[in-house]
Amino acid sequence: MISRYTRPEMGQIWTDENRLKKWLRIEILACEALAEMGEIPSQALKEIREKARFDVERVAEIEKVTKHDVVAFLTAVGENVGEASRYIHFGLTSSDILDTSLALLLKEASELIIEDIRKFLSVLKNKASAYKNTVMIGRSHGIHAEPITFGLKMALWYDEMRRNLTRMERAKEAISYGKISGAVGTFGHVPPFVEDYVCRKCGLKPSPISTQIIQRDHHAEFFSTLAIIASSIEKFAVEIRHLQRTEVLEVEEFFTKGQKGSSAMPHKRNPILSENLCGLARLVRANSLTALENIPLWHERDISHSSVERVIAPDSTILLDYMLNRAINIIDKLLVYPDNMMRNVEKTKGLIFSEGLMLELTKRKISREEAYAMVQRNAMRVWEEETDFKEEILKDPDITKVLSREEIEECFDLEGHLRHVDEIFKRIFEDNTETENG
Fold it and tell me: So which residues are the catalytic ones?
């Protein structure tokens, strides 16, 4: 199921083949830098460039003996290079390769996630435009409050995803650091020039200072950003689930031909896609916590972060790619029911206009407390006796002696609540085309 909404490119990033290619590229670049400094003979560099290669199965075979992945990789490469292999990994430590390659992998994954967010923004913008003036009830605490439009809800989600795009671009920069500084970060056996050279060629920035590793606050920021984005997606999914409830039924996930909602009840059309997203968001958030716990390591490094990152790096990026593409599919195909929305607006028999009526009374030199009490006693009667709010107001002598029938009617004007929709849309969408297109 995950693979259905995850692009092959994201899965490809985390294959052993791609990971080891990154290692090999970094090792060769380090050799180039050393050769440029005269530390490696040009003939040796030529042989390394021509012969350096690996076989994934051979690396795995050697690792069974060495119990060390980088040593196994270097041994496998050395078998192909021959004598010149003594210059490979010269002055480096394993984390020089592991951390720099992880930065490259996370950067690649970031670029795919950024593409996903841009696509999602486009879909949300289209939905906001299509339903800009489609009236629905706004709810607070799950209870009818005042009118909004479905387009405003989509515009709100668009604005949140735009912030997530900014966060993701920032996270990509935060993770784009490499290090080739040796066992404790002092460049004891390899000069800073090598780090500068490798990072420049890889499109990374040299970490200004490191220990044996790049400090894990970089990674914690990255995975926390993924968690925020996943939480936004869950927020949208929860809303769809509520709006699809039978008693509400204002929107509904697209139900395909032949789809089954329940093994027991043939009538069911459940919001399973949105429910799925809510569950997956928990995983991405949990992974961000482990990234935060990776920050405090012993001294210049221990290995407790390594096993964690081998899980959370592929899992979180693949999951978020999946979640974004599923969310795009849900919103793009979302069934919207304007008639049901209007029926729900009218369900409380005019109670949603109570604030406007109270404010109109306060304009007539009535205290807010008194105006609130006058309106509330009529509102409670509507709740309890299922009468019509406007009719109750028109029968209240304390109110009718202050407000004329025409003035009361104006308080029940639906359009008055939505007169600033155009201005809100202008704030959100004007001059922001670059957000989607990059």
Answer: 141, 262
